[in-house]
Amino acid sequence: MTNAYDAQQSRGLLPAWGYLLGIGVVAYGIVPLLASDYVYDAILAPFLALSLAAVGLNLLTGYAGQVSLGSAAFMAVGAFAAYNFNLRIDGLPFILSVLFAGLTAAGFGVVFGLPSLRLKGFYLALSTLAAQFFVEWALTKFDWFSNYNSSGVIDAPPIVIFGVPFSGPSGRYYFALTVVLLLSAFAARLVNTQTGRNFIAVRDNETAARIIGVPVFKTKLLAAAVSSFIIGIAGILWAFAYLRTVEPHGFNLDRSFEILFIIIIGGLATLRGAFLGAALIVVLPLVLSRIGTLLLGGYFNSGVLDMSQRILIGALIIVFLIVEPDGLAALWIRARNRFFGALTSRRPAREVTA
Amino acid sequence: MTNFDPAFFVEVLVGGLLSGVMYALVAIGFVLVYKTSGVFNFAQGAMLLFAALTFVSLVEKGVPFALAFLVTLAVMALLGIAIERTVLRPLVNKPPITLFMATLGLAYVLEGSAQLLWGTQVHGLELGIDDKPFIIHGVLISSFDLFAAAVAAGMVALLAFVFQRTRIGLAFRAVADDQFAALAVGLRLPVIWSAVWIAAGFVALIAGLLWGARLGVQFSLSLVVLKALPVLVLGGFDSIPGAIVGGLLIGATEKLAEVYLGGYVGGGIESWCAYVFALGVLLIRPQGLFGQRLVERA
Questions:
Q1: Structural domain includes residue B294
Q2: ipTM for the whole complex
Q3: Chain A residues within 8 A of B100 when measuring between CB atoms
Q4: Coil, strand or helix: which one is A164?
Q5: Of the candidates A140, A175, A190, A353, which lies 20 to 30 Å from B233 by C-alpha distance?
Q6: pLDDT (tens digit per residue) in B108-149
Q7: Which domain does B199 fall in, by range?
Q8: A309 at B interface, C-beta within 8 A
Q9: pLDDT tens-digit map of A225-257
Q10: What total number of domains does chain B contain?
Q11: Check: CATH 1.10.3470 for A3-344?
């Protein structure tokens, strides 16, 4: 969690644009050649939505050091706000309802970030639980939010941007992918600006940050706002590009924990970690159910799957915290350095010492 | 709410206070661990579930009540030692928030294994106290709640005795006060931490049995942890009297708010109003009602 680690991270083998180009070619060009509808709907869609949510949470928790247990609430705010903007304002372009929904989530983020004026650590984490329960309750209780649907369920509107419809599994994939790449690029840029440095300063030592002139409280609120904006939009992806119908309880405390777990397993304060962690969380249950069925056959039912998945994720959290606090991202860098080190017989890059 | 009925008010208040005792029971387990090791143990709810589920499954297999209690106690003791060995010891000297996240993982492991071991169906638990409400001066009181309150009082007395009058209690207090000084005078921290986790397991068992008799023994038991958190925020993380008073306050506030304010917003506000109340208090008094001023909160 030190700056040396961040510096290490940006010193890759290729320049940044090279990576972006590579990711773009693979994601837009190669993935669609290989992916079936099942892969789009069951793997790529949740992966993209969760990655984006984790990117958002990582800004707040990984970079600015404010632990949040209420991410799912902000996803819910984003999803339900986008639904309502789209429904209630005639002729509003879809892209604008997404944007407004993100801003609404950011507004909520600021409101629930206000306690950080006086609270820190656990106490702040607990105050985010208030957001979690309040939002879930409000969305269930007032059926105006779900257009008077008796069980609070909302259906995704068609995704149309500048007249181009993004329908079907692959269309939704392109939409989600574009949103995720744009916002991740924004986040990656943000953490290398003065604002991003301020986040890190506040995280590492609040008093020192204040002394060197970082506006601590403003920085915390800004982190909350940007993070909630991104998480809100991730909620839209979750609701519109992945599930298509979603109820408030789909954004419960377990979902918040899931996102927190993604950034712990993936690595705090790395954007790459958000994607690696999300991939693991999405793929784990699928792999587990295959292996379980193979080994135990019919005995391995969905209940057993659920429980063993819970155990495994919990254990992974503990193991990562003990063995590799910098998460999958650090493992990735280490593996890459070893691989390329052997390849070019260069001196391997400095080990991560965070 | 046009005509205010004082008897009804008292009834709601007493009901709230008594349910507050149940929250305090869960909160005490937290305080024990936090006070002595600085670990915010989110897994307390999962331990409660684990204990109650183990106990109930043993009883259903025909094990006598007392024996099942002792066996469960032994299991919880082993669990406490195992947690100290595998989770806490490798994480010594890590930031508190890391330890908190580790207990989140621990909660998942415990919830998963308890249900994998004993199944996910709801078990009824009969403690042999009939929940017949009786009436004092026109106020309805549940006898089960009174019993729970008595148990809580007994447990607090026991803990107070252990903390104040025994050697291990003295060690607990020393460690809570200053870990390095405790280490310097030769106290063995791992042993003490194990002992604290065993004690927390004991509290979890008692609370689990009471909550289990109330709600049925099932997964939602581990969610009572969420009821205990505002209690802790309010009472301070490191104060047992704080946990009790906080529990009473939260219980009363929750019930009164639900009855007198809930009607205006469609009810069901119990899930969050305790948090908002606790936060409101915190903004004015960051150390909680009874917490030490030293604790960094603002």
A1: no
A2: 0.85
A3: 67, 122, 125
A4: strand
A5: A140
A6: 999 999 888 887 777 777 776 666 677 766 667 777 878 888
A7: 6-284
A8: yes
A9: 999 999 999 999 999 999 888 888 889 999 999
A10: 1
A11: yes
